[in-house]
Amino acid sequence: TSIVSLEYEDIDCATHGMVHEYERLLQDLPNPHLQALDVDHLYHLGLTNDRGCLEELLRGIEVVVMGGSRIRAMNFALETIKRLEIKVQNDATMEDLSRSERYSMYRAGPILAVSHGIGNSSISIVLHELTKALKYAGLRKITFFRLGTSGGLGVSPGSLVVTEEVLNGSFEPFLTKIVLGKKVRRSTKLSSQLSLELVKFGSQRGYPVLLGKTMCADDFYEGQARLDGAICEFSENDRSEYLKNCHERGIRNMEMESLEFAAFCHHVGIPSAVVCVTLLDRMQGDQVTVDKEEITSRIEQSIDFLIDFIQEYTQGVS
């Protein structure tokens, strides 16, 4: 089986990355202990930083797009190669750059599509190891996107919600972690300019895009006020009042990864944005009953939207 062979040698001179002021240098990571490691084993990616392997894999990467599943990451990379007319070998298939079964990474020129699993804990692991890998590869400019699915609040199914602000389950724009037995609170600030550019671009191109706050829950059922989990100890009226309160606070969708994603990117200085397609309106019910074909169609539209945006705001991809 042949493997995708991108024109890596042309990437550095041919691409110039995100062209707005939210483009920043990848800062030194806030961990002085990394300097003491002779070799850093990125266990969940199956990679190490010795023998220059990361430079070979990741040189020229400028945009990272993260999504839940391996299939979604692969499809994003395949569609990017097709739409941006990136040169590959004939009859090529995608190579998973990860050497572990935990996460997958697929490359499309200067764009890296990465799976992150479900939930804040899962995305946290790959954010740490991927960011170290990018740093070890000598990359200086990078932009992160999370492209996902969500439950909408008072918006039509199929809407593309660009996150204005990420809130936790207590309506706070912070991620709280337990580190050495103590609570550590980190801001979930995203790049406001990048978010506004996404909404403006989508509106001009006719996409069903809107700007809204996102609630990031700890789980799919109780944390998102669902009545259909194995455990539910609140009433239907309690649920309705809670969701109404969320909507009045400007929350337009719920999901399970953006809190960690936004807090991490902000803490290490990576410009980032979140775009999620809504699969249902949670004000109308809890279960995802839409058929597989419709879900696929909505996910594909979100992929088209982000590829269009990246193509507009990058130059010289070949």
Describe the model.
With 318 residues, the protein is an alpha/beta fold. It has helices at residues 11-14, 53-58, 70-83, 120-136, 192-204, 236-248, 258-268, 292-313, and strands at residues 41-42, 47-48, 63-67, 105-108, 111-115, 143-152, 160-167, 174-179, 182-187, 209-216, 251-255, 272-281. It has a five-stranded mixed beta barrel with strand order 6-11-10-7-12, surrounded by four helices. The longest helix is centred in the C-terminal third of the chain and has 22 residues, at 292-313. It is globular, with a radius of gyration of 19 Å.
Give the topology.
Elements (H helix, E strand, L loop, with lengths): L10 H4 L26 E2 L4 E2 L4 H6 L4 E5 L2 H14 L21 E4 L2 E5 L4 H17 L6 E10 L7 E8 L6 E6 L2 E6 L4 H13 L4 E8 L19 H13 L2 E5 L2 H11 L3 E10 L10 H22 L5
Parallel strand pairs: 3-5, 3-6, 6-12, 7-10, 10-11
Antiparallel strand pairs: 1-2, 4-5, 6-11, 7-12, 8-9
Helix pairs in contact: 4-7
Query: Could you give a short account of the major beta sheet?
Result: 5 strands, mixed, barrel
Count of helix runs: 8
Helical percent range? Answer: 25-40%
Q: State the strand order across the main sheet.
A: 6-11-10-7-12
By secondary-structure content and strand pairing, the structural class works out as alpha/beta
Unreliable segments of 5+ consecutive residues: 1-25
Please state the average pLDDT score. Answer: 89
Radius of gyration computed on alpha carbons:
19 Å
| Quaternary organisation of the protein chains | single chain
The span between the termini is 24 Å
Instruction: Tell how many strands the DSSP assignment holds.
Output: 12
Strand content: 15-25%
The helix/strand order is HEEHEHEEHEEEEHEHEHEH
Globular, elongated, flat, extended or rod-shaped: what is the shape?
globular
